[in-house]
């Protein structure tokens, strides 16, 4: 949770940097166990100042942060007493002071001494990247109590941050807002945009067969997903020789003898959408290729089995969802565990990950339960309309 009480100490610098200035007026002890001084007399700390500057770090707009702890030079003379720099007790007291202001301990404890050359006659210099980001987020979100009145302003700030490339910061801020009880539709739209970007980056960084199959499956309804998984399984089971199109179609028909569907469309979709693993071997013959499989050669047998069998587990999970119709993550996990022999806890975690992937599109939520639905696929025009509405609600975009 963001501590809005810090707002009273936050200002904006001349270069639009975020600045936190807090009066202290306390005596902070030193242990004499630093590398630059053996004095234990301590110093009178007058104030602290934290500054955060936005910058572009490899296409991710983030914060560079630093902190100065100012002391009375009459209480500590660096020429005779040495540098406070690297003293562990002084650092510990700075962190405790931040926590007393309401800064979360996990953030306060990331503050550390910078370099010897950065120290001054009346201040101790620290690197404070996460602390500066935390403070910058408070500046953007503002007072929690007045969030509803400033909804448009907050959404506009988040969109502006994302436009500059600050998706990771925006994701953290969305979490802060959720923790504060915010339930705006605009926030949900922003979160979906962030999730989409994260998914694309994950696939780009890990171009494995499994990730690509999962991504391609999400474009289809549950019934089609099951058939596609069966089609892919048949190709994989065919081995090096591959499978002829006629045999491929005949085996799929055996699996669905009573269903009416276009076999031609199904096979074309399998070849077109799953080119990552289905390869043309010759005239009307297709085989399986795992050239992009990132499974480590030295992975333990359980890991290799889990990754290698992911399609089968996915199919089992899809079938279980169809059979149950309506379920909780625990109920779906129990069905997967029964069918695969997976430990119940692992199966439930897997079921939850599948639910998270398809919630909102393939699955609708009713209380703590989920129900399969055939979602209408959005057109490009729908996406444009969503974006226009988001911009309109945030006070952006063209004016009427």
Compact description:
With 400 residues, the chain is an alpha+beta fold. 48% of the residues lie in helices and 17% in strands.
- Count of β-strands: 12
Average predicted confidence as pLDDT: 78
Proportion of residues in β-strands: 15-25%
Number of domains: 3
- Order of adjacent strands in the largest pleated sheet: 1-2-3-4-6-5
**Helix/strand order, N-terminal first:** EEEEHHHEEHHHHHHEHHEEHHEHHEEH
Low-confidence stretches: 202-207, 292-308, 396-400
Biggest sheet overview:
6 strands, antiparallel
Spell out the blueprint of helices and strands.
Elements lengths: L9 E3 L5 E11 L14 E15 L2 E12 L6 H4 L6 H13 L4 H4 L3 E2 L9 E5 L1 H13 L9 H13 L3 H13 L5 H21 L3 H9 L4 H16 L5 E2 H11 L7 H11 L4 E5 L2 E4 L12 H8 L1 H15 L1 E2 L1 H12 L3 H15 L4 E4 L2 E4 L7 H14 L7
Antiparallel strand pairs: 1-2, 2-3, 3-4, 4-6, 5-6, 7-9, 8-9, 10-12, 11-12
Helix pairs in contact: 5-6, 6-7, 9-10, 9-11, 9-13, 13-14, 14-15
Tags for this entry?
single chain, 400 residues, alpha+beta, 3 domains, elongated, disordered C terminus
């Amino acid at each position: 949770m963001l501590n809005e009480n810090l707002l009273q100490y936050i200002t904006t610098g001349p270069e639009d940097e975020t600045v936190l200035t807090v009066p202290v007026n306390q005596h902070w002890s030193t242990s004499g166990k630093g590398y630059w001084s053996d004095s234990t007399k301590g110093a009178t700390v007058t104030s602290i100042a934290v500054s955060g500057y936005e910058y572009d770090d490899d296409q991710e707009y983030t914060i560079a942060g630093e902190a100065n702890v100012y002391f009375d030079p009459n209480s500590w003379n660096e020429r005779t007493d040495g540098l406070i720099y690297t003293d562990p007790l002084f650092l510990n007291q700075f962190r405790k002071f931040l926590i007393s202001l309401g800064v979360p301990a996990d953030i306060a404890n990331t503050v550390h001494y910078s370099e010897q050359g950065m120290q001054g006659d009346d201040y101790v210099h620290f690197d404070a990247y996460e602390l500066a980001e935390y403070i910058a987020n408070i500046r953007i979100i503002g007072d929690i109590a007045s969030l509803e009145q400033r909804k448009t302003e907050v959404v506009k700030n988040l969109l502006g941050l994302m436009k500059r490339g600050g998706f990771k910061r925006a994701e953290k801020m969305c979490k802060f807002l959720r923790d504060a009880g915010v339930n705006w539709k605009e926030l949900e739209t922003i979160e979906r945009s962030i999730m989409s970007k994260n998914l694309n980056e994950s696939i780009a960084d890990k171009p494995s067969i499994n990730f690509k199959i999962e991504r391609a499956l999400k474009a289809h309804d549950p019934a089609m997903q099951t058939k596609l998984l069966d089609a892919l399984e048949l190709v994989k089971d065919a081995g090096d020789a591959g499978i002829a199109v006629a045999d491929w179609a005949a085996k799929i028909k055996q699996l669905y003898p009573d269903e009416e569907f276009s076999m031609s469309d199904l096979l074309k979709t399998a070849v077109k959408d799953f080119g990552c693993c289905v390869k043309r071997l010759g005239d009307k013959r297709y085989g399986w290729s795992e050239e992009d499989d990132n499974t480590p050669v030295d992975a333990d047998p359980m890991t290799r089995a889990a990754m290698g069998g992911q399609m089968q587990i996915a199919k089992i999970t899809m079938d279980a969802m169809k059979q149950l119709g309506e379920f909780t993550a625990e109920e779906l996990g129990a069905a997967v565990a029964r069918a695969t022999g997976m430990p119940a806890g692992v199966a439930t975690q897997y079921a939850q990950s599948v639910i998270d992937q398809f919630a909102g599109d393939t699955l609708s939520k009713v209380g703590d339960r989920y129900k399969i639905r055939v979602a209408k696929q959005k057109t490009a025009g729908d996406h444009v309309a969503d974006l226009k509405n988001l911009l309109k609600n945030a006070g952006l975009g063209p004016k009427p």
